[in-house]
Design brief:
Layout lengths: L3 E4 L2 E3 L5 E7 L6 E9 L6 E7 L2 E4 L7 E6 L4 E6 L8 E9 L6 E4 L3 E5 L2
Parallel strand pairs: 2-11
Antiparallel strand pairs: 1-3, 3-8, 4-5, 4-9, 5-6, 7-8, 9-10, 9-11
């Protein structure tokens, strides 16, 4: 079973930056989508950023501030977060989806806490 190991979360002041990383415990083949989600207390999990086939998509709330990227050789996905605001406080999860027979599969990270506060 593959595990996704996340790192980079923590406490940051408003306007600050953090970079999240998500690395699998072993190689994953036939990846077709990599993404970051977040879940704030009392709220549903929401998509933050996705990357598929070289194109990226972002939630409106993070456009222009967050950037998703990938190290293909390491199957590692990153989320660079700039201009962080208190409303960005949440547990952030990475998600990797891959092709397999008969149905696609996915892995989730364990989550990393991001707290934006002065």
């Amino acid at each position: 079973q593959v595990q996704l190991v996340e790192s980079g979360g923590g406490l940051v002041q408003p306007g600050g930056s953090l970079r999240l990383s998500c690395a699998p415990s072993r190689s994953i083949f036939n990846i077709y989508n990599m993404a970051w989600y977040r879940q704030a207390p009392g709220k549903q999990r929401e998509m933050v950023a996705t990357m598929s086939g070289g194109s990226s998509n972002y939630a409106d709330s993070v456009k222009g501030r967050f950037t998703i990227s990938r190290d293909t050789a390491k199957n590692t996905v990153y989320l660079q977060m700039n201009s962080l605001q208190p409303e960005d406080t949440a547990v952030y999860y990475c998600n990797i989806r891959y092709l397999k027979v008969p149905t696609p599969g996915e892995y989730w990270g364990q989550g990393t806490q991001v707290t934006v506060s002065s």
